[in-house]
Amino acid sequence: MADFGLKGMKFGRRGVVVAMLASVALAGCGSSGSEGAGEGAVQAASAGGEIEKPNLKLGFIKLTDMAPLAIAKEKGFFAEEGLNVELEAQANWKVLLDGVIGGQLDGAHMLAGQPIAATIGYGTKADLIAPLSMDLNGNAITVSNKVWDEIKGDLPMEGGKVKHPISASALKPVVKSRNEQGKPFKMGMVFPVSTHNYELRYWLAAGGLNPGYYTDGDVAGTVAADVQLSVTPPPQMPATMEAGTIEGYCVGEPWNQAAVFKKIGVPVITDDEIWNDNPEKVFGIRKDFAEKYPATTAAILRAMIRAQQWLDADNGANRPEAVKILSQSNYVGADYDVIAASMTGKFTFAPGDTRDAPGFNIFFDKFAGYPYYSDAIWYLTQMRRWGQIPADHEDQWYFDQAKAVYRPDLYLAAANKLVEDGVIPAGSVPETDGFRGEQGGFIDGITFDGKTPNAYLAKFPIGLKKGQTVTAAGVK
């Protein structure tokens, strides 16, 4: 048996458990920053020997916002909690969702809308929870070079560059022309309940373009659509656009920057310009997993919170190292320069047009990890706005669904333990009732208050109103 620094320990029953956890944790460490992880694993086990499930498989999609998982693994944070974690890339969001529901994955980097949709029974029915929000912002909308050439001449300029944010109203002449030719204007997003779908729809509607409504018989959401949206896995977005199947897309990084580097497209707006500091991915697990393995769940969350802190520490001083880790083929697998183009405080819209974007990816600051009920309610309002929730519900229904899925109690237990241990500052944990309060920062100027979801829905010029339903014939 290999010597893992455990000589001299008295190996009673408890000692064997400690030794096994330590050796498992060391065996699972990545090469980066794992020094001392074995000692941390022993300490974690010795602190109570309570980790019920030390060997875990967690899923992710190849996007830069999976970073908290990669960093928790590579910097030894999982190992220091007594966890041996295997991270496994998934082919697409449906495969990832099915893996978590079916138990092939213990948890995953997940679209915020996925555990919400599963809980309310839209698509696949399952009891999933989100005990941690992984990040704020991180997406953009890109159009093909052909579309960019058609719209750029009419865009306002500022300081010799195109003025941002760019309104979707700039697409109106192009969309009209395509539709008159019998060639519907098509754009891609990553999944029907993704932030990307709702951000793209929000942007289009704010510019006066209807992105369409969902019915039971139209899972593509194209009823009454000016612009047709379809699902494409994130890494395939650039190639799908280059092939002409779609003329633009909304996706997370690095797949907008990939279009810039390949010179096939131009990002026209980042999601923080659509909704400043919007919530993005969550860490999703089954409800029964958290109930069966509470100590394991807490250990996962502590490791991920530490990773989030590391990613935002010292004004992003660790981001170059994070980019190097993410560029590995087993994580995002894109070139270093492509990932760095958005991950290090800059964002490139076109060759020669790189702008400061210090808040493009936020993982820890601004309470990014806290799973606010109001964030879940925003997703639910967009599901209702576009017909995925087919009928009206009272405000209380929205509150109940949000509280069933988003679990700030689990987050706070993990975060407060880190505060107690002096790992993160007390000021990094919010004092809140779970609601952010009224929020602005939307491209259309509409404010959102999670405590009044129906009043919020009534504000939109485009979108379902109280009492309205959708059929194949349209809205009634």
UniProtKB/TrEMBL annotation:
A matching Pfam family: NMT1_2
Signal peptide feature range: 1-27
Subcellular location: Endomembrane system
Alphabetically ordered keywords of this record: Cell inner membrane, Cell membrane, Membrane, Signal, Transport
SUPFAM superfamilies according to UniProt: Periplasmic binding protein-like II
Cited CDD domains: PBP2_NrtA_CpmA_like
Main location: membrane
CC annotations in GO: endomembrane system
The keyword Cell membrane belongs to this UniProt entry's keyword annotation: yes
Record PANTHER family: ALIPHATIC SULFONATES-BINDING PROTEIN-RELATED (PTHR30024), BLL4572 PROTEIN (PTHR30024:SF43)
Name the UniProt record assigns to this protein: Nitrate ABC transporter substrate-binding protein
